[in-house]
Amino acid sequence: MTTPTHLASPGAAGVLGTAGLQAAAVAAGLAVSASASLPETDYDAEVPPLAGFIDSPFSPLIAEVAGRAVSRRDQCCPRDQTAPHGVVIAIVLVTARGDVASAAQVAARVDTGRRVPPLHFFQSVPNAVAGYLAARWQLTGPIVCVSGVTAAMDAAALLIEDADADEALIISVDLGLTGGAGHRAAAVVVTGPTGRGADRHGPEGAA
Amino acid sequence: MTEGTRAAYRGPGSVVITGAGAASAYGRGTDALLSGVLSGKPAFAPVERFGTTNRRVHVAAAMPGSPDLLTEVARAAREACDDAALPAAGRARSPLFLAIHGDPALARAVDADQPGLGPDAFTAAVADRSGLAEQGLRCYMSACVSASTAIADAAASIARGRADRVVVAGGYLVEPDQFALFDAGRALAADGLVRPFSAGRRGLLLGDGVGAVVVESQESARARQAPVLARLTGWGRTGDAFHPVQPHPEGHGLARAVTAALQRAGLAGADLGYINAHGSGSPHSDPAEASALRLALGEAAGIVPVSSTKSLHGQALEASGVLELIVTMLVARKGMLPVNAGFLGPDEECRLTLVLGDALASTPEYAMSLNAAFGGANTALVVGLP
User: Fold this and answer.
1) Where do the domains of chain A lie, and which CATH numbers do they carry?
2) pTM metric for this prediction
3) Is the ipTM here above 0.90?
């Protein structure tokens, strides 16, 4: 059942950290306004469980690292979500393998004829934890999950340019293999180069 | 315009779809898909691909046998490229955006094999078997909006001149793990039919769905004198920010997606001649979608014909967006709108102008395809006849 998530050592090699995300953001013409990673310090040995998500560290990692990044972004530049057009933040998840821990548990249960816990249905796609983040932090933009950082940055840049979002929360997460370097996650909040999209057009045929 | 809506922009380029390929329980190829959905006969049958003895529900819409996902997606991508009259050199310059749940081999792989597996490796294998570019590959894993998001991203990128052409594909073949998960979540319709927007609806049913489209700039298509199946004029993507897995009950996020897509297309709601709804047949999702359409379209929501073709070919999960956009294009071109099957009677919370009884003879100049997913993710795509 739910257990604390054990993380890699700070600075360990492996999944892309904030430096990698920041470099990819800059390459895509985006500016980084806040960032977070797990683990950040030796105090980050474990990540707390996330209610409603079981048997896998995938969603708790995302919730924790994204929460840190968004709260830092909000400390720096508070949002007034009561305004008619409050700041719209998209969520872009990046994962090379997805929640392989949950998938393996489901497969093992199916192969041995055991019952699958209903909660696994809800966490079977990364959108579920993205929906948690969206509701928790009032992130009202689109939700996207892709496998690569370059694709994530390109998608975020277009969302901002086309005014589907003002900013994007980009979260990179992957679970370590058994006996490997452990789990790692990183997140950045990005804006367009001018804070909002430039060179806008529309609608179809009007250009 | 819906509450809280703001302007949606797009690049200046026009975007077209020049080819399509598909596979579903109705068979392989877009001809089989079109004739299947216009038959009005749901493709659901007892599952024979794997055992369902421990499940509550035993029905899905599946092709015979145990088709292989990689083989089927690559075949559909080649069909789409053939349909687009795209020569080998053009395919080799076209990146692939692929929508899948993940690498199907990963869940049962031993640790030693895992580094070589994953969505990127699977996407590269599809591209290789389809003769598509080795670079610029993307894999989308955003649940039931994966393929529609990929199509929107391709269109947005082409409209801004960042790409000339993208092949977007998606695939889901009914398999025991997702079947067990949806069964455990009591999401499957125990009465063996999908009844979108109907009184007495019991839930969704899974279905094989593989689709591919060649999305291209109008200039590129014109330069190579390619056939144009449809213009991809509008797209919208939004989030509800409401709940991890439940839609906003009044469909606020989906309404914003519809409005953004119409804005990009330069259309009013009444300009739509058909909507292929998300219409999962789930008790809570259908009223939210009907509310979204009423919010976004206003009085036009009472005029525009609506059906959910999930009632015919089933829920293809990550591939839904491309399969259903292909259906939407094909029926618009044919001038026959598919029936909203399984309908038992009206539900006051789902008031829409549904296509009931038989397919409706009508040639919409513009049509919309909607998708929604866990996380409150919503997409809307608008296609116009060439």
Assistant:
1) 5-191 (3.40.47.10)
2) 0.96
3) yes
